[in-house]
Structures are given as C-alpha cells and as structure tokens.
Write a structure and sequence with these properties.
mainly alpha, 48% helix
Length: 111
C-alpha cells in the first residue's frame, strides 16, 4: 500500500497519555509563562482574549472525525484545494467556527 497512510502514526489514548507524562511532543523553548504573558501584553497587535475564552479550552482527546459525502460548489472546493495540503481540515475548521458561533448565540439568547 502506498500513500499517506504509510506515514500515519497511530496511538491509543493510553499511549498518548504516557507520551504526555514523559513530556514527548512538548516544546523545549525555555520561556516562562510569566515572560510569555509580559510579552503578549506589551504587544499592541496581540489579540486579546474574549470574555469566557477559558470555557472553550478542552483537555480531552478530540472525537474521531466521521467520513461523509458532502456536496460543495465546485468553485468553493477549488478555492480550498488551491490553498494546498490540509484543505479538508480547513473546511472542517470553517464549519466548526460557524457551529461554535451559532452555538454561543443560542446559549446567549437562552439566558
């Protein structure tokens, strides 16, 4: 078999947790959290967090994606493909952004 699947590493949740405990995949950048926050607040162009941003943090593993058939306008699909590798992930990110916006709007209206 040839293609991307040959290069795909698969891990169980237990293996990933063991890797995290060992520090695998962590950056070796030595900047402290305090220094990073000082630099961020000093940068006028740095985006500022919105109220409730901490509620959006997740620490669990993401759910597996579901493979579906989806009809998309040809010009839209071509545009995403022109963006290069990872275009399906970008399509998912756009859909997720819309979903989260609408979900927050529904939650806000319910209050």
């Amino acid at each position: 078999m040839t293609g991307k699947s040959e290069n795909t590493a698969r891990y169980t949740a237990e293996q990933l947790e063991a890797m995290r405990r060992r520090g695998a995949g962590q950056t070796d950048w030595d900047m402290s959290h305090e220094e990073a926050m000082r630099r961020r607040h000093a940068d006028e162009e740095a985006p500022q967090p919105y109220p409730g941003w901490k509620d959006t943090i997740t620490v669990e593993l993401p759910q597996p994606k579901e493979q579906i058939t989806l009809r998309i306008d040809r010009d839209v699909l071509n545009w995403f493909r022109e963006q290069g590798k990872g275009y399906q992930t970008r399509i998912n990110a756009v859909l997720r952004g819309y979903y989260e916006h609408e979900h927050r709007s529904e939650d806000h209206e319910a209050q």
